[in-house]
Amino acid sequence: xxxxxxxxxxxxxxxxxxxxxxxxxxxxxxxxxxxxxxxxxxxxxxxxxxxxxxxxxxxxxxxxxxxxxxxxxxxxxxxxxxxxxxxxxxxxxxxxxxxxxxxxxxxxxxxxxxxxxxxxxxxxxxxxxxxxxxxxxxxxxxxxxxxxxxxxxxxxxxxxxxxxxxxxxxxxxxxxxxxxxxxxxxxxxxxxxxxxxxxxxxxxxxxxxxxxxxxxxxxxxxxxxxxxxxxxxxxxxxxxxxxxxxxxxxxxxxxxxxxxxxxxxxxxxxxxxxxxxxxxxxxxxxxxxxxxxxxxxxxxxxxxxxxxxxxxxxxxxxxxxxxxxxxxxxxxxxxx
Length: 336
Prior knowledge:
Layout: H1 25-36, H2 43-49, E1 53-59, E2 67-72, H3 76-83, H4 96-108, E3 113-117, E4 134-142, E5 147-152, E6 155-162, H5 163-169, E7 171-172, E8 179-180, E9 183-184, H6 195-210, H7 219-233, H8 237-249, H9 259-270, H10 274-278, H11 281-303, H12 310-334
Helix pairs in contact: 1-2, 2-3, 2-9, 6-12, 7-12, 8-11, 9-11, 11-12
């Protein structure tokens, strides 16, 4: 529990916070928010309910990372609340000042807020790389100190962020995570987890992977494989490979491009939905996780090499594609 300031005029009374260290920003932040409002579920369950598995291939010419591969689905936050039949809409703003004013209003009313941020502007990251779409929860406004107390993924307790830094962090026009002060601070959440919602979330995620396009879903893997010679021609290809390794294995994924965490969700799902066990989805997902980790390892090795490992990477991407396709097809055959 946070501690209230002795100066009520300068600092808003602290609210109870429900943060526990997690692995992924979005699923841990939403888990915290749900528990504050009375629904206690695991981070893995939260991630699975949001159909969190994704593959997005992004070209951003002229930036430090002209190619990026994201392994989490787009619109994850909306999907969690949608499957839970809970009204959800990001509040977005025309300018930074109005975005800050609304946040302060909600915090003064003792309503914690889910926010999207760019870690570049969050001082505790000390990052030189833009990485928008990072979810945190704002819990308390300290006007006297000029800061907001937030919780963030694996960091224990609350963290102080200066008002100016948080204001900048909440706006980003860098694809694929564009946010303009995105804020969700509900008055209440009244919902629960059911077998039907679990089953639908699993189906929805498989459908999203299957029905993508050249830059999303399973089809994005072919685009990535096709572009490898262009990666190799970049002067900073070693950094691109290192960054790609980090995105898959390190940057809040829980390892293996979120697949290990999703397997945990499937283990929990077996207790409510027998068809998950009958289709051996946990085993198939761990098979996918192994392939993603192997691909990440190739990227890490490549980042330390003198020659761009185009053949090894192409082979590793193809193996990911084969295993993910097997999982998706099994879900659609067994559950849909």
